[in-house]
DNA sequence: TTCCGTTGTCATGGC
DNA sequence: ACGCCATGACAACGG
């Protein structure tokens, strides 16, 4: 029904399942429009220029007032933060009740509950969702919202027009906002009870920290208590890498004040546009090195427990100290990545840095990927490939091809994550890549399957030079031998789908998947290559099978024809034999007849001069051979009766 | 070491 | 134009 559709939509937006019913007040009393009037600070609520995507469409289908996502997000945020049990359980009635007064509690636990009371919870946000949104969607004067005067239809009409004006925005932009919304809600969920954060899986905590990061970057979250973060940070031992990773966002907040920019923080502070899947702003050259580096700095599991993370960050910091964030993207020394690469490898058991360095020092090392052949890409591939060794963070993913549906999201949120602590990310753990990170966290289990018909371990994402066979053997002994080259590559690049999915997915689902998920160009390229190679591999197998079938059929045909030939030969021999017998019988009969014939003088008839001829009436005539040779044209009755 | 079969991959053309 | 499929050709690998 319509409510379930809206609920699914909100689920996709990242809101808690219960919050989906926040839309119910739409149809009840147009409460959103009136809620705008109740905004205590009179802050703008509308960012109508932002496309609202499917949510808007669903809302419009229902004929309810259009609610900008920013409002919905804020409302959801505060509904959750208020701890309303009814709302938390997704009761329509409760949501309807909240439409008039809102939740009334801020994420700060009440100390900054300025938006509370009777205010519209959606108004709690002091600004638009993010800077980009602010630019595209100028603040709508509060008076305009208030002037709606509870007339939901009027506001709906205005907002709808605004939306239609902004309808040109791309689907990707819409997805970005969805992810942002999702993260916003994650933030609220985590802020609601900070104590729970340590109990949550790392992936969830990571998502939370990223949400904070984004808020920090956007400067839109003014209600977040920095003091809380400082206390939280100070309560955690700095030498705990896990804690460092977990509270990376806290460190970031701290950095924002101290201006002590280290590598990690500098990365996290990079403009979002750099890492979002913006077809204009983003380039593979600028993105990939960044992602690689950041992934290792933000992932506590990828570093040895005894590794001096601070030292490492300082090392990288020296490289970037004089670089802007954009410069960083283009000029990060590849050697750094090599170092990081080896560091990440060092986390593996039986790691031999010499062997591995030899491995990657091998000239003519063919990645085997028809990816971007640029230097950066190559280094990335190597890096990722090596990293995949330690990457056991297979997260549960759905094997059905419709994994991107909202229902799947709902199911995946509560899904099982085998090793969340090992969910070390490469290119999704940066602050600008929440989409991939979040979606991967939610959706997927990176349990890459072995294709049944494909004997593996003969190809890897990088070549194994001949003299490194020993290393290879050792290498493979410690890892999953059953991963094919593409599976390795997919795992290394954090492709959130299995090779089987990529290859077997219908083209429509495949394209939908590519557009729905936040994938780097490298990932998209790899996915397409995997799909192409996978399909071609199957085609080649079919072709060879077909060719073999043809050969076998031809061989069968040859056998059959040979047998038939033999049979025909035997039949011919039998026929010849019968013919000879008949000839012999006829010959004997001739001689027998002529031996008994006598002419008029009683002399024997010479068979060489006469022949026997059978007439139509059955009588037998003796005809001279010269007459027979003349064509039987003139048969004389010169013969004698027997 | 050579030969041969198998397999994966790429390029190409047809649909 | 795009994607899929079939197929020849090639290389790598293993027996």
Description:
With 642 residues, the protein is mostly helical. Among the domains are: 485-596, Transcription Factor Skn-1, Chain P, CATH 1.10.880; 606-631, no CATH class. The chain is built from 31 helices and 2 strands. The protein has a two-stranded antiparallel sheet with strand order 1-2. The longest helix is centred in the C-terminal third of the chain and has 76 residues, at 521-596. It starts with a helix and ends in a 13-residue tail after the last helix. Mean pLDDT is 47; it is low at 1-480 and 638-642. The chain binds a DNA duplex (15 and 15 nucleotides) through residues 368, 370, 454-455, 458-459, 484-485, 507, 532-533, 535-544, 546-547.
Short description:
Helices cover 57% and strands 2% of the residues.
The CATH topology of the domain at 485-596 corresponds to Transcription Factor Skn-1, Chain P
What is the CATH architecture assignment of the domain at 485-596? Orthogonal Bundle
Helical/strand content category: mainly alpha
Helical residues, percent: 55-70%
Q: What is the fourth-level CATH superfamily of the domain at 485-596?
A: Transcription factor, Skn-1-like, DNA-binding domain
Unreliable runs: 1-480, 638-642
What's the arrangement of strands in the largest beta sheet?
Answer: 1-2
| N-end to C-end Cα span | 110 Å
* Biggest beta sheet summary: 2 strands, antiparallel
- How many β-strand runs? 2
Overall pLDDT, averaged?
A: 47
The Cα radius of gyration reads 42 Å
- β-strand percent reads under 5%
Based on CA inertia axes, which overall geometry fits?
A: elongated
